[in-house]
Amino acid sequence: xxxxxxxxxxxxxxxxxxxxxxxxxxxxxxxxxxxxxxxxxxxxxxxxxxxxxxxxxxxxxxxxxxxxxxxxxxxxxxxxxxxxxxxxxxxxxxxxxxxxxxxxxxxxxxxxxx
Length: 114
Known about the structure:
This protein is mostly beta strands. Helix content is 9%, strand content 32%.
């Protein structure tokens, strides 16, 4: 059964987020990334959001891919076209990782299993 959200929490997303991504984690929580340079964690059990570490670059039209180690790779997008960051939901920290060779926006990403 879904719980109602607080209107202040919904307005926080509506007013500050544009072309964001939502990544469902193995825990069932959802990482809401981008739209500016902030991340939020959504807890479905309580219907609440909490802020996590900010992205180093504001971005929209980016990709967010859940990696096998539980981290989320957030890459490219408007405002940060050739940069990438790793978000670690366990620690709540975000950090810069390698750069893309070519600037990209409004793309998709697929996790390859080798």
